[in-house]
Write a structure and sequence with these properties.
The chain is α/β, with parallel strands linked by helices. Helices cover 39% and strands 11% of the residues. It has a single domain, classed as TIM Barrel (Alpha-Beta Barrel). The protein starts with a strand and ends in a 23-residue tail after the last helix.
Length: 328
């Protein structure tokens, strides 16, 4: 099992979990079940991933087989952009819980600080970027006039009701994090951000540490996840797996250490939680045990930090015709 970090509400969260983004539906239940058998206890999902029913099937099988109890697991989901109105927040989480087959999730994020037009569940779920036949045909993402504070307070009501144990925020910049701290009644326990050596976001990471908000990294391997999405920036960028600095550091620690392990340990050694995905059992196990397998020197950490280019691959500005500068 992974090491645990204590969140600001006292809950213990594994430092290493399995990210469920892009796990195909047909193999998702089996991969979740196998990951639990290997020792994974945190599963990071979302409305938008479209595979929560299968994640739930894997969890149920592991519980039925008495490998784990529900209390052993730390299950994460995320509110999608189409459900930001307060009256829709609970609707979304109830659907998440129904698909997962659970009574509560341990951590529930606001996925993006963007409010899309509401799409009824019976019309299309998950809605993704869909907002209606007319808008979709024109390639337009329709937005809602709803403030983030209103959405956040609806999330706090979910904690009061026991549907979620903790609130998280995702893809927020420093100003939005500071704003949440000004209006929240229940403090967010975590901020999930794109985080890798090409995008270290050092000031944001330090600010969150000062305010006892756990940083959780997604896309720890940089451009890797975005090449298959046909991102031109990702395709044109040197893969971190092949970067000379990362390869040199991996070689210095022995032939059995991979560049992927170096990238993951770079994050966890600095207190950043990670949620890498893999379909291979041996790599899943290597990811889970990376803290036991590898310790980087201070100089190696600095070398990797110096690869920063402020290069972001998950860029909402490029989504369809939605020119929305979240991170600028």
């Amino acid at each position: 099992m992974s090491a645990l970090v204590t969140l600001n509400n006292g809950l213990k969260m594994p430092l290493i979990g399995l990210g469920c983004w892009k796990i195909p539906n047909k193999v998702c239940a089996e991969q979740v079940y196998d990951a639990i058998k290997l020792g994974y206890r945190l599963f990071d999902g979302a409305t938008d991933y479209g595979n929560e029913a299968e994640v739930g099937q894997g969890i149920k099988k592991a519980i039925d087989d008495k490998i784990v109890t529900r209390a052993d697991l730390f299950i994460v989901s995320k509110l999608w952009n189409s459900f930001h109105r307060p009256e829709h927040v609970r609707l979304n989480v109830k659907k998440n819980l129904e698909d997962l087959g659970l009574d509560y999730v341990d951590l529930y994020y606001i996925h993006f600080p963007i409010a899309f037009k509401f799409v009824p569940i019976e019309e299309r779920y998950p809605p993704s970027f869909y907002s209606g036949i007319k808008e979709e045909a024109q390639g337009i993402i329709a937005t809602e006039r709803v403030g983030l504070a209103d959405t956040y307070h609806a999330m706090e009501a979910l904690v009061d009701e026991g549907l979620i144990k903790s609130i998280g925020i995702s893809n927020y910049n420093g100003g939005l994090v500071q704003d949440v701290l000004n209006y929240c009644r229940i403090k967010p326990v975590a901020l999930q951000i794109e985080h890798h050596p090409y995008l270290t976001q050092a000031h944001l990471v330090e600010y969150c540490k000062l305010n006892q908000i756990q940083i959780v990294a997604y896309s720890s391997f940089g451009p890797q996840s975005y090449v298959e999405l046909k991102s031109e920036v990702a395709i044109e960028t040197v893969p971190l797996f092949e970067h000379p600095t990362v390869k040199k550091i991996a070689s210095a620690h022995g032939s059995d250490i991979s560049t992927s392990q170096v990238l993951l340990r770079w994050a966890t050694q600095q207190g950043v939680a990670i949620i890498p995905k893999s379909s291979k059992k041996e790599r899943l196990l290597a990811n889970l045990k990376v803290d036991e397998t590898l310790t980087l020197t201070d100089d190696e950490l600095k070398e990797i930090n110096n690869l920063n280019k402020n290069l972001r691959f998950n860029q909402p500005w490029e989504w369809m015709n939605m020119k929305f500068p979240i991170f600028d």
